[in-house]
Amino acid sequence: MAVRARIVLGCGSMAADYEPEAFAVLDAFRDTGERLLDTARIYGSSEEVIGAWLAARAAYNDVSIVTKGGHPSADWAPRLSLRDVMADAEASLAALRVSSIYCYLLHRDDPATQAAEIARTLTSLVDCGYAANVGVSNWTRQRVVQLIRELRLIDGPRLAVVSNYGGLAVPTAPAWWPGVRSSTPDLLQLAHSAGFRILGWSSLSAGYFTDDRPQPEFAGAENLRRRSVLQQSAAEAGVAPVAVLIRALATLDAAFVPVVSTHNPDRVRLLCAAATSSALDGAVARFRHALGAVDAPPPSW
Fold first, then answer.
1. pTM of the model
2. What domains does the chain contain, in order, with CATH numbers?
């Protein structure tokens, strides 16, 4: 990715009915110097809120936008045809009040749709000027490999982004929504060889580690142990657990960028500062050491 980012602001929960609060969060994020915003057509009025903020702040050159389309219909029927994706992209651009965005992602895969067809659709998005870069969200490594091959065969754009679940909590139950996928170690290896970045959504695992929120998807002894180790490491360093966690994720791998979401401007500032703070590296090292090696690949979505 041409845009340098240590952290991405997930805007999925931003809605028109609390626009002033969303504006405050966006202001705080921009003021930290970070610039990558993540949203999607399916996220209610999120794109409209961002579009209103861009216009109100004249911030078009201050941030870069990743949005997603081609999400399945209400009955989970696939919507990856050229017609559906282009319609979603045009609606997103209108809502965002822009003519082009930094990167456009396909929100879910449909294994029944040939990778060659999807490659042609992604190429059309760039050829039409709707996006400078393209990518996919919630795809398996195998399907990403197929898509990269097909894009090369037609001299299409390179795959710039894959966005999969990127939290430390190990999934132990079915995901919140159908068709989600994790940022697995083999996907990270592929990211290095193929030159794309992984945007890890829900990097804070929906607050499981930092806010002690009960999450059925993460129930189990291993996640409880990981949370305890994080809290102890943070307490020893005299810092907030979320600061250690986000720094650990931001320095996990050069190809990985955590996506975080919050309604609190102060929390935005804390997360962005922690993501770039080398002062936390001692606590992160102790956290990783106490966490220990995993004997086998963890379960994933």
1. 0.95
2. 8-205+250-277 (3.20.20.100)
